[in-house]
Amino acid sequence: MTSKFSKKIIFILSLILLVSPVFVFADSQSQIMNFFVDKDYDFLEREKIYATLEKISQNSYFYLEKEWYENLTEGEKETVNQNLEILTKEFDQTIYPTLTSTFGSEWKPGVDNDEHITILFHQMKEEAGGYFKNGDEYEKLQNQNSNEREMVYLNTEHLKSSIIRSYLAHEFIHLITFNQKERLRGVSEEVWLNEARADYAPSLLSYDEEYQGSNLQQRVKQFIAAPSDSLTEWQKQKGDYGIVNIFFQYLVDYYGVKILVDSLQSSRTGIESINEALKKNNIEKEFWQIFTDWTVAIFLNDCQFGENYCYKNQNLKNLRVTPSLIFLPSTQRTSVSLNYSIKQWSGNWYRIMGGEGELKLELDGEDSVDFKLPYVLCKDTYQCQVDFLDLNQNQDGEISFENFGKDYTSLTLIPSIQSKISGFDGREPSYNLGISASMEMKTEKEKLIEQLKARIVELKTQIAQLQAKIAEILREKISCQNLENNLYYGLKSLEVRCLQEFLKSQGKEIYPEGLITGFFGPLTQAAVIRFQEKYSSEILTPLGLKQGTGFVGPSTRTKINQILAQ
Hints:
5-stranded mixed β-sheet; disordered N terminus; 4 domains; Jelly Rolls; Zincin-like
């Protein structure tokens, strides 16, 4: 992930700099440095920390947060040192040579005239794997919080897991991107594409081939939880990482990693850079056509329906989205009208089932944008056909199917908006799409049969949903008798629900609203602050704080768990 800092700068190479000698001030083993860190990611929202240089390799300096490392037991230190040794070799022998030979180099020798890359481990919030601050690439005269070196940041929490190499590869791509885009070509890459390239790095390095516990497995879960998240709108949510990874797995499957490389080494950004790369590689399709193919592929994921309607990656061969169900009840005459909000470059899937007779559809899209609307018409699970519905200039269209429910069991509409191709730098607006479906039924016997069929489908859907919920609960293994993880504003989980139940048990002076939602919102945050201030001598004073923070960290969890144990 990248930081908020982003400035455009014109680099002027003067004759004096070209002829002047370059002095390299190398870091030394066990050296202690004071680093600026991003408080938005830091576990304690700090802006500065001290770190010790624990490992020097051919290409890198590995710094560990001093306070964190000193608080480890001797056994934990030994484990950390062993894992650091493995990661150091992996970076020098695999990550660095593979990624630089593929995408190009980072800035060398860089702002610090030192060819080593600084890799700083410090305590971060639980969800963070790491981050990159392009502000470090500027001198302090330009950015007072610059560490003035080529540098990435990683979460100490993941140093004990093999996934740390994926996070390091991800952040290193951001370092390369800064040099290839901002420094050499004077343009800033759109965040969604910057993150997409970085998140594909673990797959390029074959780290995702062992699927269990991989970065890819994590992204699949995030995608399934929010499949209609916009590809180009970046809000730093889990779903943002899920969609860019899953889409670019598909793009590289069919068109090769060269598309990512050539789009990086282009003076264009975003979709325009990908279209340029596709043309350069003699690929006739444009980005919008590939995205449309993908929206069908992620629903069918079976090449028997079309050569581009499946994943080649074996770890993704069973990945499919579950469409929203539009059920037509079994009545003599039925009509259903629904309105949906759709964002640019998001996949949307609406399956129509039920009824029997002639199905008539009318679609009314907002006319300020252009909709693409493929659909999948199925006789059964194994007999489906893909076609497209063309809307007029007002984004209206209609279509009908005879003997629906008899000759065809389902119709899945897959609308998307692909009008905007540049300037994605924040929240995107939503646009309306209205879908009206009508049908006339036939005989009573036919209606009864259709009702039974529809009920079976409905029950199967409910069973699948219940199975998914049960699986999720079993995976989380959360006990309300003990809080094990840090909890904070914006989080939604079963453990947040446990926290809310605890706060409610502390009385109205702590949590007057008493809402149990599982979402850590402003009311929960205010209740946590009241609880922290009630037990300030045990929670806040040891941390040097006078007021509650609303962040449920180690000291707050310790007090909560102490009360729960009683």
